[in-house]
Amino acid sequence: MSSATTLAQPARILVTGGSRGIGLEVTRDLAAAGHQLWLAATTEKVHEVASLLGSGHRASRLDVADPHSVAALFGEIGRDWKGLDAVIHAAAELGQTGNFWQLDPEAFAHTLRVNTSGSFFVARAFVQSWLDASQEPETNRRGKIILFSGGGGGYGYPQFLPYGTSKAATVRMCETMAMELDAARIPIDINIIAPGANETSLLAAVRAAGGEVRTVVPFSKPIALCRWLLSGDSDGISGRFIHVNDPYPTLSPTALRVETLKLRRIDL
């Protein structure tokens, strides 16, 4: 990381879904940059990943679809670390594929609970923990929440309705959360990344289900965008749906139009 795209000092960062895929690659980059990481994922593998990163990193099993599991994790972090500087929420599931009339209703609802409700549970808990820790003296510190979108988040994606619906809902949720944080004068930026198609087990499942994959994006691109969103260079940029190929280093909160990098209906 260059000084222009890193936090001014080592940060305490929670990464959900940090044991595989994009979450794992981002985790490795942040650990190499000297940040203190708390990894969370559904399987025991997360403990192995944390140990391989070196001392000072922590890990917990987490069910993002269960608000009690999320609350317990943030309670543990609060007791041991006294708070967080940022959260990168990469945990997600692809869900069932096929025509919508063939889908199982319970499986559809579960994907929305994991991907959309899970994002809500994690973002909510982070803001609450930030407010609880705000009694401690800090100067010019902004919290950072980074969410992930995916295929179908900004366009229709036949055969992948549960995943696309959950990600589109999360994009709009991110925008609304940013508006509420700004209105409450809470210094936290929340943004959502469109990472492109990365070589992960989820992408392999998309291919296996017959999904179209036109181009593959290297992990270096979502990693670089995460770096920038964690840095002071992105302060004030919030509620935006940012693709890894966007010219995001040029963005300025004072120059951005209100509707730029957001989901919008196109008028006739």
Structure report:
The chain has a single domain (3-250), classed as Rossmann fold (3-Layer(aba) Sandwich), CATH 3.40.50.720. It starts with 11 loop residues before the first strand and ends in a 25-residue tail after the last strand. By secondary structure, the protein is α/β, with parallel strands linked by helices. It has helices at residues 21-32, 45-53, 67-81, 105-133, 161-183, 201-208, 220-230; strands at residues 12-16, 36-41, 58-61, 86-89, 143-148, 188-194, 241-243. It contains seven helices and seven strands. The model is unreliable at 1-5 (pLDDT under 50). The radius of gyration is 18 Å and the shape is globular.
Query: What is the CATH architecture term?
Result: 3-Layer(aba) Sandwich
Q: What is the succession of H and E elements?
A: EHEHEHEHEHEHHE
Q: Unreliable stretches, pLDDT < 50, 5 or more residues?
A: 1-5
In percent, how helical is the residue content?
25-40%
Q: Termini separation (Å)?
A: 45 Å
**Average predicted local confidence, pLDDT:** 89
| Rounded radius of gyration (Å) | 18 Å
Supply the number of helical segments: 7
Major sheet: 7 strands, parallel
Assigned CATH superfamily: NAD(P)-binding Rossmann-like Domain
In short:
The chain has 268 residues and is α/β, with parallel strands linked by helices.
Task: Give a quick set of tags describing it.
268 residues; alpha/beta; Rossmann fold; seven-stranded parallel sheet; 7 helices; 40% helix
Outline the fold blueprint.
Elements: E1 12-16, H1 21-32, E2 36-41, H2 45-53, E3 58-61, H3 67-81, E4 86-89, H4 105-133, E5 143-148, H5 161-183, E6 188-194, H6 201-208, H7 220-230, E7 241-243
Parallel strand pairs: 1-2, 1-4, 2-3, 4-5, 5-6, 6-7
